[in-house]
Design brief:
Oligomer: single chain
Largest sheet: 2 strands, antiparallel
Number of strands: 2
CATH architecture of one domain: Alpha Horseshoe
CATH topology of one domain: Serine Threonine Protein Phosphatase 5, Tetratricopeptide repeat
Low-confidence stretches: 209-213
Strand content: under 5%
CATH superfamily of one domain: Tetratricopeptide repeat domain
Distance between the termini: 41 Å
Number of helices: 10
Mean pLDDT: 81
Helix content: 55-70%
Length: about 220
């Protein structure tokens, strides 16, 4: 146990949560014997340090089963414990994106990139958000930055191809689709089929520039 006192306030640190909970109950009882009480707003349990990882893991589980609001809350707690937790910002951005809160998602991806300037996934997902907002120049800048960092990051090529098609750059779209096919993994079968079909369309006649951006929140 560690005790830090400042004026009439103090902080008590414990290794295990159950010890802290027991101490809080006993302290309240002890104060009550003297007609005193703990301040209701200042008195609380706070987890910190290694608990950031626990919140991060719990929030990932919430995100996977669709509990986005709870996931966002847990990511926020993880960030409170570990302010430079780039992955928590990134995943909170994904949760906002799934709720179609695009501006909030961009803010989160940008913070993740501020912490880790080589965060390929954050650039790619931020580019996807910009494409959903029809800010295609920004989208392409993000996809190209992701590809610059990792030339074999397949989904950045795929999303770049879709945006190139939307802005009337069919041959750039064809090249990006071919690059995607070259680097795609076995779990990206659907996108591979889409890319192959797009290459056929773009090389055989007029292309449809109304294609919708492809959402990828990883």
């Amino acid at each position: 146990m560690v005790v830090v006192r400042y004026g009439n306030d103090f902080i008590v640190g414990f290794q295990h949560r159950q010890e802290a909970e027991r101490f809080l109950v006993e302290l309240g009882d002890r104060f009550g014997r003297f007609g005193l009480r703990l301040h209701p707003e200042k008195t609380r349990l706070i987890e910190f340090g290694q608990f950031a990882e626990a919140y991060f893991n719990r929030e990932n589980a919430h995100r996977k089963i669709g509990q986005l609001d709870q996931a966002i809350s847990d990511y926020t707690k993880a960030i409170e414990f570990k302010p430079n937790y780039a992955e928590a910002y990134y995943n909170r951005g994904n949760a906002y994106a799934k709720k179609d809160l695009w501006d909030q998602a961009i803010t989160e991806y940008s913070k993740a990139i501020e912490i880790n300037e080589n965060y390929v996934e954050a650039y790619t997902n931020r580019g996807s958000i910009y494409s959903m907002k029809h800010q295609f120049d920004q989208a392409l800048l993000n996809f190209e930055r992701a590809i610059e960092i990792d030339p074999q990051y397949a989904i950045a090529h795929f999303n770049k191809a879709l945006v190139c098609e939307m802005v009337g750059r069919p041959w750039d779209a064809v090249k990006a689709h071919k690059d995607f096919i070259e680097y795609a993994g076995p779990h990206q079968v659907l996108q591979i089929e889409i890319a192959r079909e797009k290459i056929k369309q773009l090389t055989s006649g007029p292309h449809d520039s109304t294609v919708k951006p492809f959402k990828v929140w990883q």
